[in-house]
Backbone:
């Protein structure tokens, strides 16, 4: 009914996250009917991104250069390496501004049932990165889910007896969290990991 | 922090309807990190759509050919012309399957305060289309909003005294509409336009 090339575009747009048939059609109409300039910008930026963005050979984050700007930044703290499981987690930590060391990005988390083992998430590349003699502390910043915890404990056992300290993100009550609405696990954990109040 | 080409892609994706900064970032990550094949498909289909999709010279709908498949279909009812204000309205009527005539697509509705007059919505092209001697009825299918009504009544006065009948979509209680939740205007209208019950 509508032109076949329009339908093909609608079908292609459905690969975007949480875009269904109706939304894809609205997007395609917007691009072809009302905002051809925007559509051309998407084509050119997406083409450039696809051809020029690869992975940083040190941390595996997206980068246009063989080594990403963060890994290339000599001002950061060489003693700390933070291991994250996704680029969004990497971004979240970097945007918090609380970490000055370097990162290593796993390609996801261990999930043996889905056939995702250490090799699939890039543990071999991590081993190479860990050879860096400057590293004094490795921070396991995988998420607090079952798979994230499994990944962290696998890495922890793998690094047992190594010369650097291994740490894990603290768990507890989030900022602004009302105890009343917090799940029991988190509350129990926060209680067990309670800190003595000091005067500093 | 992330590569500049990635940020440019995120900015470009924000031209899509109801896509903000967070969603655009998620889309860009999906395209570059996880689904490069999908990204390449978007580039190729969007490029093809931009270069090959124009407007039908008879009805102004999107078309890859000078005359769209509907206008080129000689089997449809030449006596009826349905005037719609957007491609989505056009699609909605066509998908209902209740109309077998031809369409004419206005580029929006009259909105004098925004400087959108008859020429901007393509009334001159409509005049050319209305020269077709086969037309017996013109159906004004603009939306039931203030601007839609204004557009319909402008067109109606423009066509006053012409050889064809001019009609308007019926207004009233929608299918499945509970009277209790219907607005007063619609209810009053439905009451005023009440139909005698016949036995056919």
Residues:
């Amino acid at each position: 009914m509508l032109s076949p090339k329009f339908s093909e575009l609608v079908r292609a747009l459905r690969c975007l996250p949480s875009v269904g048939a109706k939304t894809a059609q609205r997007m395609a109409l917007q691009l072809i009917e009302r905002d051809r300039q925007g559509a051309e910008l998407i084509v050119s930026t997406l083409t450039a991104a696809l051809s020029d963005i690869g992975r940083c050979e040190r941390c595996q984050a997206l980068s246009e250069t063989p080594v990403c700007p963060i890994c290339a930044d000599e001002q950061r703290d060489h003693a700390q390496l933070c291991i994250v499981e996704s680029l969004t987690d990497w971004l979240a930590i970097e945007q918090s501004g609380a970490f000055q060391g370097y990162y290593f990005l796993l390609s996801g988390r261990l999930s043996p049932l889905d056939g995702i083992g250490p090799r699939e998430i890039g543990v071999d590349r991590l081993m190479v990165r860990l050879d860096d003699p400057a590293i004094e502390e490795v921070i396991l910043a995988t998420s607090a889910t079952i798979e994230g915890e499994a990944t962290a404990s696998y890495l922890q056992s793998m690094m047992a007896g190594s010369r650097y300290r291994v740490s894990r993100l603290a768990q507890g009550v989030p900022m602004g969290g009302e105890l009343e609405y917090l799940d029991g696990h988190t509350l129990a954990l926060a209680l067990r990991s309670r800190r003595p109040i000091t005067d500093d």
